[in-house]
Structures are given as structure tokens and as C-alpha cells.
């Protein structure tokens, strides 16, 4: 659980955006919170022999980090997106995706080592054109704004930006029926496709301005220089200074590779 993400929730584009649990309730002072922490420590001395999975140990570390998080100023300042000037906020786009990406930059600037921004809702089995007309400009603004902002702040060389999904869409349009009569769901769309996809990498040690690999003329499958997700993972490891051939021990003590194919994409490094 200590590796679970901290989720901000809410919409950073809203004037009333606030991260839950970042401010103490009005009737709870830091001193009272400290008293409760002391009480919790005493209660935690109860026998733990029944717990052998490591959950208590993980919760101890997690609770301490949460305590420091709430009582410190640094986190609250990082989440205070209203302190950004309007020009910067407009550059990212005044919508949830753009402002979430700006918030990600603020968190990295404050010392967060890994931040995920979720751009969800691409399952356009129908009404593809109207969906893309809505979504693509948001992605363009958020990604361009992030690269521009990181570069202007001198953070681009130390921040790896990854834009990726988990699969692609069928090269051919369907009839909008999704298994029913044509157009019964809406205008034509595209279905799931796992034979080819994309990933954009930039900053953080990556040599940009390149397209690695290609698909055939219909986008159905890789044509040359095919790479796999584990090659992307190995490239990320290299950029972070980690060994992609790393092994960890499973519960039976056997070494297990973290990445099946630890070969990085050399052209990017």
C-alpha cells in the first residue's frame, strides 16, 4: 500500500478545486493531531503476531508520511494551483486535462518523483469524429504547454514526459452499430486494436525529434523497427539511471526479471 498513488480527485480547472484532507478540520489543531498520533502509537503496541504479511509495517510508514503531509506547508503550496498566473494556465488549456497537467508540473517542481495524469474516455466505438474534435485539442494544449513550461523553467532535461495508452484502435471504421444495426449507436467509430500503438517520450535524457519504427500503409501492424512495451520500460529505466536487467526475488526466493526484454530503444538515448 505504500506504493499506492495519492489521488487528488476533483477538477483542477474549477475555481473551488481543493485536494481532500490537505487542511485540518476547523476544530482540530496541530497539537491535538499530535496527541492523536501519540495515542495511535500506544495502541499500535498491541500484539501483532497475527499479522505476518507486512501490512502493519507498510501502514506505519504510510501513516507517518500522511501525518507529515498534512501538517507541512510544502504539499499545500504545491497543490495551490490558483497561485499560477493566468497566462500559464491558458497555455495548458482551461479544462480538466490541461489544469491537471499543470498541477503535475507543480508536483514535480515540489519534489514528487512520479505523477500520472489520466486522460480517460477514448473508447469511441461510435461518434468517433465528434469525440476526437473534443479531445484532441485538449491533448495538444496540455502536452505542448507542458513541454514549453518545463523547457522555460529549466526542468525538461531532468523530467521525462511519457504520453501513452494501452492499445490502439482498428485501422478501419465500423458502421456505428457496435453489433447492432448500422448507425444504431451513432456515427461510425473504431474498435479495439492491439497489433500496433504509439508512445511519445520527451525530455529526461531522451533524444527527441525522431519517429522510431513505422506501420504498414493501413496502420494494421508494424512495418519496420518494431518495439514492444518492455522496450519502452527499459528505455525509461535507462533514463532514470536504473538497471533494466534488475531481478527481484519472488515469495519462493527465485529471481524474477522486472522486464522480460530489458533492451532499451538505443536511438532515443
How would you describe what is shown here?
By secondary structure, this protein is an alpha+beta fold. Helices cover 35% and strands 9% of the residues. The protein contains seven helices and eight strands, in the order ααααααββββββαββ. Strands 1-4 form a two-stranded antiparallel sheet. A two-stranded antiparallel sheet has the order 2-3. Strands 5-6 form a two-stranded antiparallel sheet. The chain is globular, with a radius of gyration of 23 Å.
Largest sheet, if any? 2 strands, antiparallel
Strand content of the residues, in percent?
5-15%
Number of helical segments with 4 or more residues: 7
Residues in helix, %: 25-40%
Averaging pLDDT over every residue, what do you get? 90
**End-to-end Cα distance:** 33 Å
The outline comes out as globular
The count of DSSP E runs of length 2 or more, i.e. the number of strands, is 8
Q: Extract low-pLDDT stretches.
A: none
Strand/helix succession? HHHHHHEEEEEEHEE
Which structural category fits the helices and strands?
alpha+beta
Q: Strand arrangement, largest sheet?
A: 1-4
Rg, alpha carbons? 23 Å
Question: Can you lay out the helices and strands and say which pair or pack?
Answer:
Layout: H1 30-43, H2 55-71, H3 73-79, H4 86-92, H5 96-109, H6 128-152, E1 160-164, E2 168-169, E3 192-193, E4 199-203, E5 214-215, E6 222-224, H7 229-239, E7 247-249, E8 255-257
Antiparallel strand pairs: 1-4, 2-3, 5-6, 7-8
Helix pairs in contact: 4-5, 5-6
Amino acid at each position: 500500500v505504500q506504493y499506492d498513488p495519492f489521488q487528488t480527485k476533483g477538477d483542477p480547472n474549477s475555481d473551488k478545486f481543493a485536494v481532500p484532507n490537505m487542511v485540518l478540520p476547523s476544530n482540530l489543531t496541530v497539537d491535538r493531531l499530535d496527541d492523536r498520533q501519540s495515542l495511535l502509537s500506544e495502541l499500535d503496541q498491541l500484539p501483532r503476531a497475527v499479522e505476518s504479511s507486512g501490512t502493519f509495517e507498510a501502514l506505519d510508514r504510510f501513516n507517518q508520511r500522511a501525518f507529515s503531509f498534512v501538517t507541512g506547508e510544502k504539499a499545500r503550496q504545491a497543490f495551490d494551483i490558483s497561485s499560477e498566473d493566468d497566462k500559464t494556465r491558458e497555455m495548458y488549456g482551461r479544462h480538466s486535462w490541461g489544469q491537471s497537467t499543470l498541477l503535475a508540473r507543480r508536483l514535480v517542481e515540489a519534489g514528487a518523483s512520479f505523477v500520472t495524469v489520466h486522460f480517460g474516455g477514448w473508447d469511441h466505438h461510435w461518434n468517433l469524429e465528434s469525440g476526437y474534435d473534443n479531445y484532441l485539442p485538449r491533448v495538444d494544449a496540455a502536452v505542448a504547454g507542458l513541454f514549453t513550461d518545463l523547457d522555460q523553467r529549466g526542468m525538461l532535461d531532468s523530467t521525462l514526459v511519457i504520453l501513452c495508452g494501452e492499445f490502439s484502435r482498428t485501422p478501419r471504421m465500423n458502421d456505428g452499430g457496435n453489433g447492432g444495426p448500422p448507425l444504431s449507436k451513432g456515427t461510425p467509430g473504431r474498435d479495439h486494436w492491439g497489433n500496433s500503438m504509439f508512445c511519445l517520450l520527451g525530455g529526461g535524457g531522451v533524444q527527441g525529434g525522431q519517429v522510431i519504427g513505422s506501420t504498414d500503409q493501413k496502420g494494421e501492424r508494424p512495418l519496420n523497427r518494431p518495439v514492444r512495451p518492455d522496450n519502452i520500460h527499459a528505455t525509461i529505466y535507462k533514463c532514470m539511471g536504473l538497471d533494466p536487467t534488475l531481478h527481484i526475488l519472488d515469495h519462493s526466493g527465485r529471481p524474477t526479471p522486472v522486464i522480460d526484454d530489458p533492451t532499451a530503444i538505443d536511438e532515443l538515448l
